Amino acid sequence: RPVNLPRKEKDFQGMLEYKKEDELKLVKNLILELKPRGVAVNFIPGLPAYILFMCLRHADYLNDDQKVRTLLTSTINSIKKILKKRGDDFETVSFWLSNTCRFLHCLKQYSGEEAFMKHNTPRQNEHCLSNFDLAEYRQVLSDLAIQIYQQLIKCMENILQPMIVSGMLEHETIQGVSGVKPTGLRKRTSSIADEGTYTLDSILRQLSSFHSIMCQHGTDPELIKQVVKQQFYIIGAVTLNNLLLRKDMCSWSKGMQIRYNVSQLEEWLRDKNLMNCGAKETLEPLIQAAQLLQVKKKTDEDAEAICSMCNALTTAQIVKVLNLYTPVNEFEERVSIMFIRTIQTRLRDRKESPQLLMDTKIIYPVTFPFNPSSLALESIHIPGSLNLGFLTRV
Amino acid sequence: RPPSRPRVLLKAPTLAEMEEMNIFEEEESP
Predict the structure, then answer these.
(1) Which among A65, A81, A128 has the least Cβ separation from residue B10?
(2) Which of A329, A227, A241 minimizes the C-alpha distance to A285?
(3) What DSSP character marks residue A153?
């Protein structure tokens, strides 16, 4: 009786053979019907991308340009299709963003172009594509990755948006600071039913959840940094815009609360080792608005200090905060019209837009820095649960 | 080591053009 001895890894060449008629089954099982949760938790990050690339390598090895083309088209169209269907699910979008990037990195790492081979092992160099130059397809994949990134940002924004005003402005964690409520102000009724239930802690927990999902999916660290920067921009912009529209948010004690909240966000960045991703800098307008609520606003010296401090705020924003500023106790007073005029005169020569509100829809341009993998393709096993028994390891 | 033979550049359609080649057409039609 023949003994079914498993082949040794060194005997494999890191390719997966498939029949042309199985291509649809491949993208169906691997992309359209895959449940990201199970895959992300149990298997190596980027496994679908590696499997697709190993199939592509086999088509390249056969020198079958039609097979290469149709596999790439089916892959890209399937990813677009799943994102159309589940585009509002952060996990799905994050999963396909990281896999699309990994697929793109593989196309570079194994392209045979020296610039992308610097970190390859000799064995990895043997696995470079041998017949086709897929540079144009890399461009298409990069365009796809940009689309998925924008979808991820929208998805994240939809989840975060309802928490921001409540967690950053309304909810008070510093006990006894505000003391007396500003006189003559009604408590603003909430437009979102459960708005009042969100706290800064809800925001921090949500940020951690986004972060842990992306890490689990093996998202490139450089890409995570860009997502976090965008998250912080949205938090800062939405908070500042609401502050600029609400008198009850423009008091000394709110300034204190905002500064505390910002320090907690910074602490979160430090905890995740993300201090250098540019996220903190996006909060600068909000930080300055909070400081503006707290500094003295009386003398010419105060005016000078404010003008040099608030360089991330527009004149319209500075003047608005000063106009809205509302004392909450007898030790504070309203800002005089004369003082506001002094500020306006001092800032007259600033070249800037008359913009009051920040544009919360801005998305920073994304880049996908090349991130080669040390994983040996020949060592990759295909778990039975993926239902890809029709692929043969070569 | 990269092979000495030059690779053949595969011309790619754009992302939008690719969508036209809907591989799922048959499956989706009633």
Answers:
(1) A65
(2) A241
(3) H
Q: How far apart are the first and last CA of chain B?
A: 51
What does the mean pLDDT of chain B come to?
A: 74
Maximum CA pair distance of chain A? 100
Substitution target from A74, A140, A146 for chain B, most B beta carbons within 10 A:
A140
The verdict on a CB contact (< 8 Å) between A137 and B14 is no
Backbone angles phi, psi at B8, to 5 degrees: -90, 125
What is the nearest CA distance from B1 to chain A, expressed in angstroms? 5
Q: What is the mean pLDDT of residues A27-51?
A: 91
Which DSSP helix (H) or strand (E) runs through A292? Answer: helix A284-294
First to last CA, chain A: 24
Cα angle value A101/A27/A153 (rounded, 5°): 40
CB pairs under 8 A between A and B: 68
Average predicted confidence (pLDDT) for chain A = 92
Chain B positions touching A104 (Cβ under 8 A) are none
Residue A24, chain B, CB below 8 Å: the answer is yes
Is B10 close to A114, i.e. CB distance below 8 A?
no
Q: How many CA atoms lie within 13 A of A362 on its CB side?
A: 15
Give the whole-angstrom CA distance, residue A56 versus residue A124: 15
What is the chain B residue with the closest CA to A143?
A: B15
pLDDT digits (tens, 9 = 90+) for A110-154: 999 999 999 999 999 999 999 999 999 999 999 999 999 999 999
Chain A residues touching B12 at Cβ < 8 A: 72, 134, 136-137, 139-140
Residues of chain A with Cβ-Cβ distance to B14 below 8 Å are 140, 143
CB pair distance less than 8 Å for B7 and A76 = no
How much is the ipTM here? 0.82
Q: Of A280, A78, A246, whose CA–CA distance to A169 is shortest?
A: A246
pLDDT band at residue A226 under the 50/70/90 scheme: very high
Q: Per residue, what are the HEC states of A80-134?
A: HHHHHHHCCCHHHHHHHHHHHHHHHHHHHHCCCCHHHCCCCCHHHHHCCCCCEEC
